[in-house]
Amino acid sequence: MIDREHKLSVVRQAKLLGFSRGSVYYLPRPVPDGDLALMRRIDELHLDYPFAGSRMLQGLLRGDGLKTGRLHVATLMKKMGIEAIYRRPNTSKPASGHKIYPYLLRKLAVTRPNQVWAMDLTYIPMARGFVYLCAVVDWFSRKVLSWRLSITMEAAFCIEAVDEALARHGKPDIFNTDQGSQFTSIDFTAVLKKAEIGDVTLFHGRLNKALVCDVRQLRRSRLSTAPL
């Protein structure tokens, strides 16, 4: 990843790797090797069983000989930014002060590019830790319009990805995200408002399975061979 002793500047390295420039100056607390091993296996299991919650994942981990508590699994899932893909009662709300947007995609026929864009965030294990990937995807074409990496779940790298997508591809009629704090932050929603996007919809829980698969495909095809 970023080599602070390299002759290339940190900013230049960040640009070449697709990292958010703001995040490269943040020095995260080291994650214990045991937790990193658990997180990597949780990530693999989540790819194979996207419907599995912390309880089921705990059972699968035990089947691999990895003993850990369900609450610890839930904590690691939160750190990784993943959760089971399933419908659930609307019991969660954005932070106080954030506008609540209606979910507009239910029963909507998506028939053309730039009708609906969606954005999601996923965890990527690395040799010495992990990073986060956010991507903007056109719902109709399944094309990845832009993406960014970060070592923190901040809003800044999500904003950079949206700015690039808007600059390169115009703007959508509808912009769809989940209820994550990155996407309900004042700075993030201000970007969408400035772009005069007609509708913003926040989905309670993970976005639909097709989008999640698109983001994973980006992760596998583009990042698996990246010199990180």
UniProtKB/TrEMBL annotation:
- PROSITE patterns in UniProt: INTEGRASE
- A biological process from GO: DNA integration
Q: A GO molecular function for this record?
A: nucleic acid binding
Q: Which domain of life is it from?
A: Bacteria
Q: Which residues form the Integrase catalytic domain?
A: 109-228
One Pfam match, given by its short name, reads: rve
Q: Which InterPro entries match?
A: HTH-like_dom, Integrase_cat-core, RNaseH-like_sf, RNaseH_sf, Transpos_IS3, Transposase_IS3/IS150/IS904
Q: State the PANTHER family in the record.
A: TRANSPOSASE INSF FOR INSERTION SEQUENCE IS3B-RELATED, TRANSPOSASE INSO FOR INSERTION SEQUENCE ELEMENT IS911B-RELATED
Put simply, this protein is called Putative transposase
